[in-house]
């Protein structure tokens, strides 16, 4: 914290908090666009934050992404956290295995010596497949756990970056561009006003569900995500934002 004072990060946190409707802002030094270790620092900050909020019976829902992978990397066993259950927030969203929520969820549980349950559902579900899958007892059970999670930890992405990273169809790509999506979280795409303009069809947590979750922690950094963070937060359920200096300075318009 002495370091934070010295670097002026405390002031920056206050400034970002005054600009966004968030509960709390935690900023780490550096810009993860330029220095990969900054992601790990956000991971460390997130783990510390989770530790404060977790209790023995907590159910933690997590999304995928490289930032969440960094959070998983920094996870440590905590005697207070033995009964913790990790679940993926949503089903398949078209990510590579290492970026998938299932992978991250299992890794977090392993590192924290907690338990985990996975959601085995394919990407690009048709309406019929979706309807029958959610009736499958095994899926239903995990869905029930996901919906009763007390903590959600998630990443935020730039809309086009995410649409390109997932193998988004030409049709959906057109839609995402035409509707000026700038942010992505949980498989939802948002425009500058924070309105949903497109959504990937999968099961798991829906945006409405997040409003009922006790603690929501969003982890996203890098100057390139400033626009996405700002847009997403406009209408997002009240969250704790963990970000880096790069994103924060871009957000506040500071050099
Ligand atoms: C995805 C999440 O896996 O990761 C997205 O489902 C999120 O909601 C994205 O936007 C962020 O990825 P990264 O690699 O920038 O942390």
Q: How would you briefly describe this protein structure?
A:
This protein has 255 residues and is α/β, with parallel strands linked by helices.
Describe the protein's architecture and organization.
- This protein has 255 residues and is of the alpha/beta class.
- Helices cover 44% and strands 16% of the residues.
- It has twelve helices and eleven strands.
- The strands form two sheets. The chain has a seven-stranded parallel sheet, sandwiched between helices. Strands 6-7-8-9 form a four-stranded antiparallel sheet.
- Helix 11 links the parallel strand 10 and strand 11.
- Helix 2 crosses helix 12, helix 4 packs parallel to helix 5 and helix 11 packs across helix 12.
- The two termini are 22 Å apart.
- It binds 6-O-phosphono-beta-D-glucopyranose.
- 6-O-phosphono-beta-D-glucopyranose binds next to helix 4 and strand 7.
Could you list some keywords that capture this structure?
alpha/beta; 255 residues; 12 helices; four-stranded antiparallel sheet; 11 strands; binds 6-O-phosphono-beta-D-glucopyranose
Order of helices and strands: HHEHEHEHEHHEEHHEEEHEHEH
Number of helices: 12
Terminus-to-terminus distance: 22 Å
In percent, how helical is the residue content? 40-55%
Structure summary, number of beta strands: 11
| Bound small-molecule species | 6-O-phosphono-beta-D-glucopyranose
Overall spatial form = globular
Task: Give the mean pLDDT.
Answer: 94
């Amino acid at each position: 914290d002495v370091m934070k004072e010295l670097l002026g990060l405390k002031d920056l946190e206050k400034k970002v908090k005054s600009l966004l409707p968030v509960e709390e802002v935690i900023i780490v030094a550096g810009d993860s666009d330029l220095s990969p270790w900054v992601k790990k620092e956000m991971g460390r900050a997130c783990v510390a934050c989770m530790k404060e909020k977790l209790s023995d019976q907590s159910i933690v829902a997590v999304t995928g992404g490289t930032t969440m992978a960094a959070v998983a990397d920094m996870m440590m066993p905590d005697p207070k956290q033995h009964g913790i259950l990790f679940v993926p927030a949503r089903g398949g969203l078209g990510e590579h295995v290492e970026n998938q929520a299932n992978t991250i969820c299992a890794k977090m549980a392993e590192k924290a010596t907690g338990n985990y349950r996975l959601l085995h559902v394919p990407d690009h579900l048709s309406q019929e497949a979706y309807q029958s899958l959610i009736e499958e007892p095994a899926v239903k059970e995990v869905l029930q756990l996901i919906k009763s999670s007390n903590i959600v930890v998630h990443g935020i992405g730039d809309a086009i970056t995410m649409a390109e990273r997932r193998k988004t169809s030409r049709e959906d790509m057109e839609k995402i561009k035409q509707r000026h999506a700038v942010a992505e979280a949980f498989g939802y795409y948002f425009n500058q006003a924070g309105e949903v303009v497109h959504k990937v069809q999968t099961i798991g947590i829906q945006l409405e569900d997040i409003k009922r979750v006790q603690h929501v922690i969003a982890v996203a950094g890098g100057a390139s995500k400033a626009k996405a963070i700002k847009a997403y937060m406009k209408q997002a359920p009240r969250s704790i934002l963990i970000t880096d200096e790069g994103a924060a300075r871009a957000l506040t318009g500071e050099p």
